[in-house]
Write a structure and sequence with these properties.
Shape: globular
Largest sheet: 8 strands, antiparallel
Helix content: 25-40%
Radius of gyration: 17 Å
Number of helices: 6
Structural class: alpha+beta
Strand content: 25-35%
Order of helices and strands: HHEHEEHEEEEHEH
Number of domains: 1
Length: 205
C-alpha cells in the first residue's frame, strides 16, 4: 500500500509539473449527449436522480456527472455514479477518500471479475452505523476501461502532453448488503452492469 501511495504521489507531482511547462489544451466543459442519454428507464429498472450541489461540479471540473438510484421491485436499490469529462488530463480520485469523508469505514478492498466486463474491477466493502454496502468501481480513459487508477492517470497525462487530450472518468455502482450476503449483492450489481454496458460502451467511442 505504501509503495502504491508513493507511485500515485509521484505521478501527480510529475503531472502537475509538466502541466505548468506545457500550455493547457482547451478542455470541453460542455454537456455530453452520451451522458445525457443514459436511460432513466433501464429494462425492469426505474430510477430517481440525486440532486447534486453546484460545488460538486466545480470540484470535479465537469458538468457530466450522474448520481442516480435505480430500483427493481423486490430488491434493494442500486446507486449509479458516473463522472465523465470528454477532454481532460484530470480525473476523479478513487472513492475511498470520499467515502471516509462521509463517515464510512472501508472494511475491505480487492479486485474481482464481474460478468459483462473484460477487466477486473475494484470491490469495496463499506460500513456505517452497522449498515454495509458493496461498491464496484473502475475508470475509463480514451477508448479503454481501467481497473487501475495509476494506469488511467498515465494514459490521460500522456495524451494531454501530446496535445491530444482524451476523455476520462470513473464509474461506481453500489448496493446495500442484506444479512451479510455479498453473493446476492454481487449478483444484483452484475445484472445491472449487463443492462447498462451498451450505454457505458458508447463513452469509449
Amino acid at each position: 500500500m505504501n509503495k502504491r501511495f508513493f507511485i500515485i504521489v509521484g505521478i501527480l507531482i510529475v503531472g502537475v509539473g509538466l502541466s505548468l511547462v506545457f500550455k493547457s489544451a482547451e478542455i470541453d466543459f460542455g454537456i455530453d449527449e452520451r451522458v445525457v442519454n443514459l436511460p432513466k428507464q433501464l429494462g425492469v429498472y426505474t430510477s430517481r436522480d440525486v440532486e447534486l450541489d453546484a460545488r460538486i461540479y466545480d470540484i470535479l471540473e465537469t458538468r457530466n456527472v450522474v448520481m442516480r438510484h435505480y430500483f427493481k421491485e423486490g430488491e434493494p436499490p442500486i446507486l449509479f455514479y458516473l463522472i465523465f469529462s470528454k477532454s481532460t488530463h484530470k480525473t476523479s480520485d478513487p472513492p475511498e477518500n470520499c467515502l471516509r469523508g462521509e463517515g464510512r469505514a472501508i472494511v475491505s478492498k480487492e479486485q474481482v471479475e464481474v460478468s459483462g466486463l473484460d477487466i477486473s474491477v475494484n470491490k469495496l466493502l463499506v460500513e456505517k452505523s452497522g449498515v454495509k454496502d458493496l461498491h464496484l468501481y473502475w475508470f475509463m480513459a480514451g477508448d479503454e476501461f481501467f481497473q487501475s487508477y495509476v494506469g488511467q492517470r498515465l494514459k490521460l497525462i500522456s495524451s494531454y502532453l501530446r496535445r491530444s487530450p482524451q476523455s476520462g472518468g470513473q464509474i461506481r455502482i453500489s448496493t446495500e448488503i442484506n444479512n451479510d450476503d455479498q453473493t446476492e449483492a454481487i449478483k444484483r450489481l452484475e445484472a445491472f452492469i449487463l443492462e447498462m454496458m451498451p450505454y457505458l460502451g458508447k463513452l469509449l467511442e
